[in-house]
Amino acid sequence: MPGKLVVGNWKMNGDLRRKRRAAGGSAGPLAGAGDAREIAVCVPFPYLWQAQAALSGSAIGWGAQNVSEYAQGAHTGEVAAGMVAEFAAGTSSSGTRSGERCTGETDEMVAAKSSAALEAGMTPIVCVGESWAERESGAGEAVVLRQLDAVASRIGRAHRGDGSCLRTGVGDRDGRSATRSRRKPYMSSCASGCKHEREAANVPLLYGGSVKAGNAKALFACADIDGGLIGGASLNVDEFLAIAGA
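Structure (tokenized):
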């Protein structure tokens, strides 16, 4: 991979004032970061216009945290990938493990949303992960690879060979950072599980298990980790800058 990819996932946090400070505070100091690493933020739908206004012309990209699997129709409350793309958004995060618990999102739905993002010209960041109970029972690796297989299969059929890029974020649903001894096998399994996609489309693997300034350098030093999907820490400008600096 040419450089590390650092993506902030703001989740359902903040307001206009906080979002303006977080976006503007990051854009200036990171203005020259594009040559060494790629940086983006995924914001709640209502703040896409604000992200576009604050980050246009900077080295930081922006995107949404989810998209509908449908292109249009009577799907009240849903937001189509094409709508998000109209804000010049380049990324879309799908398959968040908290989303699965709240909305009943299935592996097949995540695959469909990822495909929809690609069709709209965006890069999907596909989040896979296991619950703490699944990890403790020894089923974690199988759960992660099952999720990955569903998406890779769908995208492989529809988009392989067209230059599209898939990004994969690996974490656990309970938001706890895995120890190095447990983290390494999961990332290695994911790297092996999507080996053909990584080779064909230069697919980075992002770690998403509570990345912070204090552990970012060690995480990014791991051979199978190509960057991070940053949650709560991305809302703090200084913390996010320190993570990007790592």
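Confidence is low (pLDDT under 50) at residues 161-165. The first helix runs from residue 16 to 27.
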